[in-house]
Design goal:
It is a single chain. The chain contains six helices and 27 strands. The chain has helices spanning 12-27, 60-64, 191-194, 198-206, 217-231, 236-240; strands spanning 33-38, 47-49, 73-79, 84-87, 105-110, 112-119, 122-129, 138-139, 153-157, 162-166, 169-173, 212-214, 273-274, 284-286, 289-290, 297-299, 303-305, 310-313, 330-332, 347-349, 352-353, 365-367, 379-381, 392-393, 408-409, 421-422, 425-427. It has a six-stranded antiparallel sheet. Strands 20-23-25-24-16-26 form a six-stranded mixed sheet, with no helix packed on it. Strands 2-1-7-6-8 form a five-stranded antiparallel sheet, with helices on one face. β1 and β2 form a beta hairpin. The two termini are 42 Å apart.
Amino acid sequence: MAETTHALQVDRNALDELLAYVQLSKQKNSMPVGIKWDTASSSPSLTRVDINKNPIDVDTAFFDNHKIWGGLNPCVFTDPTTGKHEFGSNLGLGGLDLTGESGPLMVRVPTGMVLSEIDGTDRYWWVAPLNTELDPWETTPAAYQRGGVLHNEIFVGAKEAHGYLDGETFKLGSATGKIPITGGVGYPDLPNAGRFTIDDAETYANNVGPGWGCYNIHTHDWLQLLMYIEAGTFDTQTAFGRGVVDLASGVDFAGLNTGADSIDDNLAPNGTGMGIGTNGQTPVSWRWIENLYSNTWTYGIGSNTTDTEIRVANRDGSGALAGELTAGNYEASINPPYVDPEIGYTSGYISDFEVEPLLKNMFVPSAISGSSSTRACDHHWTHYPGRTNILLLGGYWSNGSTAGVGYRLSSYYPSYYFRSFGARLEFIPQ
């Protein structure tokens, strides 16, 4: 009988890239690192600490060489339906097609473990690389979303989402040089007479392929914590740049296109920086993610407020994400959302966060007696009584100092849309 051989067909470049990444990952620091917030102080400054609560002196190079922060790298999904993607040279933008013609421009985000603690007037948060044997650490819920399977990496849009027609199917994309998609502004090819609700954002993101969806609140909470730890302050606008927040309100869409002011060519090797314009009128990037706050509000799917409770998508990833979460698809808080005891719906600068078990790592505002330069610095529009509301994140082009990664708006219902309400893609491997 003739001998039969079976050849394993592999993409040599992809294999070499994977091996190089594995070697690089082995060399990176896996040290748990956290922050201490002195709640008795009005300062937004945070003390970086080790697992024993000892202050540590770390710099940008420390984070660049950490398995979590150093693992945030841009890539292009050349086949979104299968999840095939490629990274740029030196794990940066080099060699990548930023235009969207080859596929969505995304950022790989390593998942990990979270631990928080209250010690007198001090409050602590720590993160560590993924290790399910750590106790009493918890795996970030971001690692389980869209299917309930544990993932060591997820992906978020490097840019605010734009929309486009693929044949007869409208989809969301992520690319440079695009008009961010918002509602009510005559956006090209947008179905339903220009409507763009949070459920529309989820539908058009789902249309990209399996595992694709609208940016969810657990993903945001994970990134928000990573940003705070690296910044060493709640004042992200001072640490990384104001973002696009000082433009006139205008009419229709009055923000900036993605990749404006040559920002893609003006970033540090770790993907952090601003465009070449005036601070406050130019885009800001943190580890390759452009305008995580500012320019357009971002729908944060997976969170609702009612008069009696705060609802968040199941932390184990079971259930379905939607603008209004239905029974069985969410966990509910013990406490109701913050409202002013005299007037109900109001706004102010965040001065404290919820501490109950469900919300302790989610930076949900519980008080708004701060300012733009004290406490948590960012603004919060509270729950609007009498209805179920969605969550919007970050602020938009004329929000000034109220914007930031912690800015949250909990006042609009799921069917509402507006010219400043936008979206961001996420991909979670299936």
